[in-house]
Amino acid sequence: MRSTIVSCLLGAISTVNAIATISVKGSKFFTSDGDQFFLKGIAYQLVPEDPLVDSTQCKLDAALMKEVGANSIRVYHVDPDGDHKDCMSTFEDAGIYLWVDLDTFTTQINQDSPHWNATQLQAFEKVIDEFQQFDNTAGFFVGNEVLTTGNGSVAAPYVKAAARDAKAYRNSKKYRDIPIGYSAADISELRPMLQNYMACGDNSSEALDFFSLNAYEWCGPTSNYQISGYSQLNANVTHYNIPIFFSETGCIKPRPRTFEDQAAIFGDQMNPYWSGAIIYEWIEESNEYGLVSYGEKVDPAAVSAPPDGYPRSGTPTPISPDFDNLSDQWKTLTPSGVKASAYTPSLTPPPCPAYTSDFWDVNGGVALPTLGQTFDAAIQSSITKGTAAAGTATTSAPTTTKTGGGSPGREVQGMGIGLVGVLVGFFWWM
Ligand SMILES: *[C@@H]1O[C@H](CO)[C@@H](O)[C@H](O)[C@H]1NC(C)=O
Ligand SMILES: *[C@@H]1O[C@H](CO)[C@@H](O)[C@H](O)[C@H]1NC(C)=O
Ligand SMILES: *[C@@H]1O[C@H](CO)[C@@H](O)[C@H](O)[C@H]1NC(C)=O
Ligand SMILES: *[C@@H]1O[C@H](CO)[C@@H](O)[C@H](O)[C@H]1NC(C)=O
Ligand SMILES: CC(=O)N[C@H]1CO[C@H](CO)[C@@H](O)[C@@H]1O
User: What is the Å distance from ligand 4's center to 350 Cα?
Assistant: First the structure.
């Protein structure tokens, strides 16, 4: 009898302690407890293939992430065959959610030869299968910075097709509604058409669940809401019908990093429209965006040294004063948002942006590519405004394949709106 009572109590306790799951309602994220959710995230990719299989390391990092005030991590590459149980429960215990990219170096959609096929979909499905089992999996990205040039828009239909098929798979397996979205590079020529394209159309099965932007425009204490261009980003989201957030941010010039943009993102002007931010990044490596280091840089030529000399595991040490500055910002920024029960979405999808002769080479009204379709530049070149679409596809095999392009960790550094981004800061394994 007593043991029954104890186990009942334990059952009740563990139910209470289980982390609330995240889903989308209208243009916001909510926890299953009915509270609006704002990401305070950190990009976390210690090693190229999968950082979520090293339980010792996850414990060391999760404890310190709690200290900085994070409630989310973003991981760009995982191996679906790995054992993620320990790391995921460690992060869950720390109140930290996972936003994970479904692609890898070999399965990512590529703007130079856009295609979306069954091999890619099956690889994405394996990641979904693995991570849907964890309550603290908050979202999936179908791509990171696939479009990185002003003329890269022809790849957009393939990204959208990937989200369509990933969502269909999630639903067919009766998994919970884990949000599926995209993380865009900050390319001013594509804005806001790309953002609107990903949400547009009457058929919600073909629209993304969320959109997110990697932006490094707010640099140091002399920047502000106007100078950074955040005011313009904001102007383009006030009627956006799906959640949007910064999937990478955190300019490093000038140093130290002061993260004043966080006050804007979580403040009254932006928090009605934006769902938070992910700071790039946790580990110090050659791009020097780290919030922690695992020890002194070593000579990359030394035996078994990491390629860039930066240790990739061990006890994390906060980088001063950046780590504390971020923590100080986040501590004061706790928008309550709205309760799900008090929120009735009223926004409708934006119109699909029309083909333009300069940068937006996609006619949003044309059907998405089907699985297996490949972009054909010959068809593209015959496009005339409004009568056909980039994203028009053929079923021929891709003529070129490239790996390693469009990879994570690429940033557009400190550019004002209206300037073409400069790509800097690659991960060491690129
Ligand atoms: C899909 O494209 C990849 C290259 O991205 C290729 O290696 C693979 O063979 C293709 N799969 C199918 C089924 O065509
Ligand atoms: C886009 O521009 C780049 C360089 O500006 C060029 O190499 C590439 O061929 C262009 N792509 C298309 C689809 O026109
Ligand atoms: C919506 O899109 C899905 C996926 O492409 C498709 O299966 C479905 O038929 C579409 N619904 C309508 C009403 O067109
Ligand atoms: C985006 O915002 C700019 C102002 O920053 C405005 O000129 C433009 O019309 C907006 N575009 C859309 C589609 O909302
Ligand atoms: C905004 C912020 O927290 N700034 C602090 C960052 O760290 C430096 C050095 O400790 C402080 O002087 C700033 O006040």
Answer: 12
pLDDT tens for the chain, residues 1 to 430: 444 444 444 444 444 568 999 999 999 999 999 999 999 999 999 999 999 999 999 999 999 999 999 999 999 999 999 999 999 999 999 999 999 999 999 999 999 999 999 999 999 999 999 999 999 999 999 999 999 988 789 999 999 999 999 999 999 999 999 999 999 999 999 999 999 999 999 999 999 999 999 999 999 999 999 999 999 999 999 999 999 999 999 999 999 999 999 999 999 999 999 999 999 999 999 999 999 999 999 999 998 898 899 999 999 999 999 999 999 999 999 999 999 999 999 999 999 999 888 889 898 778 999 999 998 776 665 443 433 343 333 222 222 222 222 222 333 322 222 222 223 233 333 3
Q: What is the pTM of this model?
A: 0.88
CB neighbourhood size of 16 (10 A): 7
Question: How many residues comprise the chain?
Answer: 430
Measured in Å, residue 205 CA sits from the centre of ligand 3 at: 6
Residue 126: CB atoms within 10 A of its CB come to 16
Active-site entry in 248, 260, 281, 284: 248
Q: How far apart are CA 325 and CA 348, in angstroms?
A: 38
Looking at the DSSP assignment, which residues form a beta bridge with residue 29? 24
SS3 for 24?
A: strand
Which residue minimizes the CA distance to atom 13 of ligand 3? 203
- DSSP readout, 189-231? GGTTHHHHHHH-SS-GGGS-SEEEEE-B---STT--TTTTSHH
Amino acid of residue 238: T
> Hey, what CATH class is 2-6+22-429 in?
alpha beta
CB of 203 within 6 A of ligand 3: the answer is yes
Q: Are 244 and 235 in contact (CB under 8 A)?
A: no
Q: List the beta strands (DSSP E) in 26-179.
A: 28-31, 39-43, 72-75, 97-101, 137-144
Residue in 92, 125, 130, 145 annotated catalytic: 145
Does the Cβ of 69 fall within 6 Å of ligand 4? no
Question: Is position 248 annotated as part of the catalytic site?
Answer: yes
Instruction: Output the CA torsion sign for 348, 28, 227, 419.
Output: negative
Cβ contacts of residue 13 below 8 Å, gap of 6+? Answer: none
